[in-house]
Specification:
With 230 residues, the protein is of the alpha/beta class. The protein has a single domain, classed as TIM Barrel. It has eleven helices and eight strands. An eight-stranded parallel barrel has the order 1-2-3-4-5-6-7-8, surrounded by eight helices. Helix 4 (67-80) packs parallel to helix 5 and helix 8 (156-166) packs parallel to helix 9. It is globular and about 45 Å long. It binds cytidine-5'-monophosphate. Homodimer. Pathway: Pyrimidine metabolism; UMP biosynthesis via de novo pathway; UMP from orotate: step 2/2.
Amino acid sequence: MHEPRIIVALDFPDGKSALRLAHQLDPQLCRLKIGKELFTATGPQLIEQLMTKGFDVFLDLKFHDIPNTVAKACQVAAHLGVWMVNVHALGGRKMLQAAREAITPGTTKLIAVTLLTSMDQDDLADIGLAGQPAQIVGRMARLAYECELDGVVCSALETTQLRQQFGSEFCLVTPGIRMHDNNADDQRRVTTPQQAIRNGANYLVIGRPITQANDPLLACQQLNSAISGF
Ligand code: C5P
């Protein structure tokens, strides 16, 4: 079987709710993402509990600070044994290099957020960044690539170009995924799992279509079936 390409976003306010969902899922079918809300509530204890159940954990804390601080945080994340951790590419070359040096390649995957999808052209102008969001995404992805990070988080609409530019080894992690019959929730632009994989995504971050489903395991199985041929 293919290694799990679905990463379930555990967007919960407490560990109990996250564990309740994890009990219903299968580590053969998905990995799990812990973000700022859940991590702030539970700390690393939950990571250990989920890893004990056999799940790979993506620690989505988007580190962005001076190089030394980010390097130390990355080191701790790697020691926790998480499968993947991320930083903001906007932290710059020195910060990305420090993060890279802190994590041995081939262990915890180190990826970068290029540009938050919540930022539009006006937001960029406000902080003095010239160019269209798509150009900044391309620039930040190149920076992450040059600093030898393992990949980036990007929208499925950006994957085709990034895959062409950076080749098959660069890891592309894509949120904003919905099946045709799913509610888009607050996502503006959604892509089907098939299309995202076809465009070159390695991993799909999926939250509510699984976490809010009546049967989360079934939803996860259906999403896996949808991409199994690719
Ligand atoms: O519920 P849903 O599938 O929309 O959840 C998507 C997950 O991916 C959430 O954890 C969200 O924060 C994250 N994400 C996103 N868009 C980005 C980056 C991360 O939706 N550009």
